[in-house]
């Protein structure tokens, strides 16, 4: 493979001097761990998405874990979720000794099938306690259907909105805000980033209170409060065996600045998605995501129509890399991962839609700093590959002979 100095990475965060200044301010303030910046970050985000409580943590995974813990999920409970996700959304179920119950995605999209959930709730006699839908790529699952099923069967709902921020769904709600709790990730490649970090959002005060305690060692008062309140500074009570999941003020300061730019970042991403859609829509050997404003455009996932191309997805990715373009795959489904196979005995064909989507899909670069020329290079490369590897029909091949 030839080396490119102008290689287009799959993702690149936009960090400017405002974020640098915010970090410097915190570093010089004398308070670098969880404190006022974190509180400010939580307040700003809660206000933006319209929830009562936003709780910052050091990863989206930590938020998922404590969200489910606060919902009372315990050993041998079952949580209905999707195999088409990053391992975080299922591993946290295992942290609690509970089990993920996989329901396949819809044939036509990347989301857990609500009919599939309905079917499993009627046909399976398991100890179902919650549903954990994942808003893949930044497009909402069918939350109305999922919430209706949850209500009917007395289940909690934890929304994995790691990809969602700050997009709404078609019904006008910020993704992640309709279940009992939802989470956002601020990992390096996400729509806004703190390097590592996450936020749990909820309108349920009981969940919020539990998460507040559990994210900081099971201590009944916030660490920051411990050092600033008028009560004796040295006193605290450990009421649970909690975790160390708090976010530092250094990272929260980055998050607060990124938050002010979130809508602008979304516009940049949406503009790129629109351009990809316009430029590539004629290629019938590719399936593109439907352009919509109800999408965070964290990911732009393209699927190949294998029957129309002489190369497979893996080779498509390789050729793009040879042309200096970075891509990624979202996701290798969990049911074909060694851990989940070993633990639950899954076979690849158990979730055929997830397997099929995985085998045909890859994600293109999409981020605010992706320049016009870079977009052009990506579009030209894809058109070229499709043209060079288009499987002509037998009739056309005969005619050409
Ligand atoms: C669907 C999904 N859920 C959860 C996470 C975990 O987020 P974090 O990396 O912030 O822990 C990710 C991370 O990429 C993800 O893609």
Describe it.
There is one protein chain. The protein is of the alpha/beta class and 401 residues long. It has 2 domains: 17-259, 3-Layer(aba) Sandwich (Aspartate Aminotransferase, domain 2), CATH 3.40.640; 262-400, Aspartate Aminotransferase, domain 1. It is built from 14 helices and 10 strands. The protein has a 7-stranded mixed β-sheet with strand order 1-7-6-5-4-2-3, sandwiched between helices. It has a 3-stranded antiparallel β-sheet with strand order 8-9-10. α3 (60-70) crosses α4. The model has no long low-confidence stretch (mean pLDDT 95). Pyridoxal-5'-phosphate is lined by residues 59-61, 85-86, 88-89, 134, 160, 162-163, 185, 187, 198.
What is CATH's topology name of the largest domain?
A: Aspartate Aminotransferase, domain 2
CATH architecture of the largest domain: 3-Layer(aba) Sandwich
Main pleated-sheet profile: 7 strands, mixed
Strand element count:
10
In percent, how helical is the residue content?
Answer: 40-55%
Could you say which small molecules are bound to this protein? pyridoxal-5'-phosphate
> Proportion of β residues?
5-15%
Average residue pLDDT: 95
The CATH superfamily of the largest domain is Type I PLP-dependent aspartate aminotransferase-like (Major domain)
List the uncertain runs. none
Question: In order across it, which strands form the biggest sheet?
Answer: 1-7-6-5-4-2-3
Globular, elongated, flat, extended or rod-shaped: what is the shape?
globular
Number of domains: 2
């Amino acid at each position: 493979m030839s080396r490119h100095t102008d290689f287009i990475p799959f993702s690149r965060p936009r960090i400017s001097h405002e974020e640098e200044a915010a970090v410097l301010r915190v570093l010089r303030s004398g308070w670098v761990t969880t404190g006022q910046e974190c509180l400010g970050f939580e307040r700003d985000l809660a206000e933006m998405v319209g929830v009562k409580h936003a709780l910052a943590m050091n990863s989206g995974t930590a938020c998922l874990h404590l969200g489910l813990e606060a919902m009372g999920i315990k050993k041998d409970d079952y949580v209905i979720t999707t195999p088409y996700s990053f391992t975080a959304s299922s591993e946290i179920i295992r942290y609690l000794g509970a089990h993920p119950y996989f329901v396949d995605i819809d044939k036509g999209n990347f989301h857990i099938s609500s009919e599939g959930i309905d079917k499993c709730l009627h046909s399976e006699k398991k100890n179902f306690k919650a549903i954990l839908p994942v808003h893949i790529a930044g497009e909402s699952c069918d939350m109305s259907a999922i919430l209706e099923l949850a209500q009917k069967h007395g289940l909690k709902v934890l929304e994995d909105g790691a990809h969602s921020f700050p997009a709404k769904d078609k019904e006008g709600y910020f993704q992640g805000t309709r279940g009992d709790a939802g989470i956002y990730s601020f990992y390096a490649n996400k729509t806004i980033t703190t390097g590592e970090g996450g936020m749990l959002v909820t309108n349920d005060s009981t969940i919020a209170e539990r998460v507040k305690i559990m994210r900081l060692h099971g201590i009944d008062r916030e660490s920051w409060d411990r050092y600033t309140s008028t009560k004796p500074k040295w006193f605290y009570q450990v009421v649970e065996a909690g975790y160390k999941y708090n976010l530092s003020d250094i990272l929260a300061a980055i998050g607060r600045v990124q938050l002010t730019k979130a809508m602008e970042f979304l516009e940049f991403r949406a503009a790129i998605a629109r351009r990809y859609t316009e430029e590539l829509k004629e290629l019938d050997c590719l399936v593109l995501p439907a352009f919509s404003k109800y999408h965070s455009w964290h990911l732009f996932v393209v699927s190949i129509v294998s029957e129309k191309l002489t190369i497979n997805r893996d080779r498509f990715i390789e050729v793009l890399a040879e042309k200096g373009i970075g891509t990624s795959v979202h996701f290798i489904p969990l049911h074909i991962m060694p851990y989940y196979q070993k633990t639950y005995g899954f076979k690849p064909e158990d979730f055929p839609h997830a397997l099929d989507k995985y085998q045909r899909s890859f994600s293109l670069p999409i981020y605010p700093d992706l320049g016009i020329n870079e977009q052009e290079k990506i579009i030209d490369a894809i058109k070229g590959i499709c043209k060079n590897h288009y499987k002509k029909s037998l009739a056309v091949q005969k005619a050409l002979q």
